[in-house]
Design goal:
With 432 residues, the protein is mainly alpha-helical. The protein is 67% helix and 4% strand. It has a 4-stranded mixed beta sheet.
């Protein structure tokens, strides 16, 4: 079921990824930072040849994945496969609810098999080729199966609710589904740190008590409770660095990869933590949920207005004549993928905005411009980043400000030196 276009694009990505690495092109984060003097601005390092190959092949893979997100649902529809899966599900389940569950299981399993070659290349082979992954094939495949099982569980819950709403309210299902999505998103935000994330990695308390004390002191200055700071054992899987905020209400936590602790200096690490605390203090989780509701509402309304047009045009080939037929799942997915591509600039613009806010919060909290800039240099070097991607990349793919822009902002933003008021100063317990 792989199309010639997709196969050609994958071969192109492989070729870009496997070009021999020129000797002397890789630079350690410490070496890049050392190029700056003891004082003054931190320079944005030029990306290595290896990083640029990773960037270019990643752009190809983004195009491949975007195209595949449209091709695969179309294959399910125009080959009649989705209708056949529906018939198999009805034979197995007999009743409406079991039949829906059986369809979800079979559909996701088939989808998993179709996706597996590309997932193997981009998630395993490519990461090893660039020296970014430590995972064995067994661990990688085991994680893939776990993600499939989590998807099945979620799908078995979500799909019956969706199709019940479509059946009971053909004209307002999109509105009711949008409102139903909010408590579901909140629930998933709460349970993901407790039940899902631990399936893939080992989480625990900070191993360095002195560093933990400094992080908690920083959190106290920020006026937030950061008692839930977790260190995750990611070095068994990857060489990259990261930190993030997860959870909601009582399950909120800040997560640090052990690779981040090992590869960043203390001042850089504290800046990263201040950035994550900024997400807490500025209520970005709540804002993100509100933004998601608006985007889901708009997308489902467009799907509601357009799905019937396609069904009337192709019902003979697709073998269903109404949206309430579960065989329409690939149609919903395909339309959602189209809208995701169209709406990506809006979504990326929103996430870049809140990430920039968190960067500003971290600078105002720590007043460590150099530590912040060097942290982003380390992220660029360790994660093979391109600090100055093109405008199309920024528009459609950049969920964060570019690393070059973030380093520049760290160098330039110093309102406390000119007596200007801090934007977030009233959030700090002991503003300087």
């Amino acid at each position: 079921m792989r199309t010639p276009v997709r196969a050609l694009a994958v071969l192109l990505a492989v070729a870009l990824a496997r070009t021999p690495i020129a000797a002397g092109q890789d630079v350690a984060a410490q070496d890049v930072a050392a190029q700056d003097g003891a004082a003054g601005a931190v320079s944005v390092p030029a990306p290595t040849e290896k990083a640029m190959r990773y960037y270019r092949s990643g752009c190809v893979l983004w195009l491949v994945n975007s195209a595949w997100g449209l091709v695969l649902p179309a294959l399910f529809l125009f080959t009649g496969l989705s209708a056949r899966v529906r018939n198999w599900a009805r034979a197995i389940g007999r009743w409406w609810l079991p039949a829906l569950g059986a369809y979800v299981v079979m559909f996701l399993a088939i989808n998993f098999l179709f996706d597996l070659p590309l997932d193997y290349y981009q998630g395993f082979l490519r990461q090893h080729d660039y020296g970014l992954s430590n995972q064995s094939f067994g661990t990688w495949f085991g994680d893939s199966v776990k993600r499939l099982l989590v998807g099945v569980i979620v799908g078995v819950v979500v799909v019956p609710v969706l199709y019940l709403l479509i059946t009971r309210s053909p004209k307002r299902w999109w509105l009711y589904t949008s409102f139903a999505a909010v408590p579901f998103i909140l629930f998933m935000a709460m349970v993901t740190p407790l039940w899902i994330d631990p399936l893939f990695n080992e989480f625990g308390p900070m191993k360095d008590p002195a560093l933990e004390t400094k992080i908690l002191s920083l959190a106290q200055r920020a006026g937030i409770d950061a008692g839930r700071v977790y260190e995750v054992n990611k070095s068994v899987d990857t060489e990259t660095v990261n930190a993030y905020v997860t959870g909601f209400l009582g399950t909120k936590r800040i997560v640090l990869w052990d690779t981040t602790i090992a590869k960043l200096g203390e001042d850089e690490l504290l800046f990263v933590m201040a950035h994550e605390m900024g997400h807490y203090a500025l209520r970005h989780v709540v804002k993100g949920i509100g933004f998601s509701f608006v985007m889901i509402l708009a997308a489902l309304y467009v799907i509601h207005r357009t799905a019937g047009i396609f069904i009337r045009r192709f019902k003979g080939r697709w073998r269903f004549d109404r949206l309430s037929d579960v065989a329409s799942v690939p149609l919903l997915i395909g339309l959602a993928n189209v809208l995701s591509l169209i709406g990506a600039p809006v979504v990326m613009g929103f996430t870049r905005h809140i990430e920039h806010e968190a960067d500003r919060f971290a600078l105002e909290l720590t007043r460590d411009n150099r530590g912040g800039a060097r942290a982003f240099v380390a992220l660029q070097v360790e994660n093979l980043g391109n600090p100055r991607p093109g405008p199309l990349y920024k528009l459609w793919r950049a969920s964060h400000p570019t690393l070059g822009d973030r380093i520049d902002f760290c160098n330039e933003y110093r309102p406390w030196e000119t007596g200007e008021p801090l934007i977030y100063g009233d959030l700090f317990v002991d503003p300087r």
